Amino acid sequence: MRSRRASVALVILAVTVSLAAAPRSSRAQGGEPRRDYLYLWTASADTTRPDFLAVVDVTDEDTSRMYGRLVTTLAVPGLRNMPHHTEHEMPADSQLFANGFGSGRTWIFDVRNPEAPRIAGEFAGVEGYTHPHSFLRLPNGNVLATFQMRHEATGVRPGGLVEIAPDGRAVRASSADTPGLDPATRVYSAGVVPALDRIVTTTTDMTGASDASRQLQIWRLSDLSLLHTIVLPDGAAGGESKLTAEPRVLADGRTVLVSTFSCGLYLMEGLDSDTPSARLVASFPRKARTNCAIPVIAGNYYLVTVPAWSAVVSLDISDPAAPREVSRLTLGPDDVPHWIAIAPDRGRVVVTGYRAMQHRVVMARFDAATGALTLDDRFGDPDSATPGWTMTGRTWPHGGSGPGIPHGAVFSR
Hints:
This protein is mainly β. It has one helix at 2-21, and strands at 37-44, 52-57, 69-75, 83-86, 95-100, 105-110, 118-123, 129-137, 143-152, 155-164, 170-175, 190-193, 198-202, 215-220, 225-231, 244-249, 256-260, 264-269, 277-283, 295-298, 301-306, 311-316, 324-330, 335-342, 348-355, 360-366, 373-375, 389-390, 404-411.
């Protein structure tokens, strides 16, 4: 009898351990799937109507028509704000920063309740710096914002970095301007490297190109001191260094790859030394009037938009000095993919862009084991032969029915 009880106890223990070790289900109590959402920071093509944040239900396990359901919209004050960058991943506090570059204003969206998002804060110039562009979360939960410029009596000067609390209060700021620096230098985007106490920023001017856009700036994270300004070298094709774009920190927390809008990819070296540098490790063809754009790091893979191929490309970066293409998701011939963001489970990638994609959002599937990208043809309009979820022909909950022009897009946590 004692032996039998022991056997039953062992079985119960094994089942308990098995359940504890199993992956967490995305289903809520009662068997219903937990809801996943996509937030689309959207310009109104009808410039008499406000720009807005759109919330779309993208619950993966839901096989009903709820997948791709427009949940709600939230309009922002003013017109022609030019919705541009949001944060690239939803922060833990669900206070999403999003800039309207045309007006130089930033909104903080509280999306803790996806069915009823609200504006929790707003700011424009901070500490004398104007036109915020990119937002990154710091280890302390604050936001590091890149500001393109500063207006002074002598004219427009380079901007800088501002650390901002989640409620929009400025914590500290630091200028990118140094003696002898090209006044056309603009702080564009950033990569934060806590393990090395460093920040890397790029210098593309949103209002026009200049030779200053070939630069990178390196800062000390702990006190926001500007340490170095370096110029990227070109490669064999020439011009790969122009329009520095997006730094990305790899999975090891120390290695940084920097993209350029001119379709170059650079590996940072000696980032925490007195002589940091960068070398070209990959490049893509560039199509007239289009730019390679937003990249994403997913484990050992680097995903990036390549408009010359109308594609999102997946590179194996196990050896970051020798990236190797493993997959390519090719869209329509007139599609110009620009922004991409990845879901928290690394299973899906959202894509927005220009030209034929101007009013359309595409979803891709990503295989984290192989780096493969495939089209998610479930996300779209059921009666359309063109893949993607369109922002035309809809009546928006906040009012109006003009086409939407999505730019920044981010998944819920």
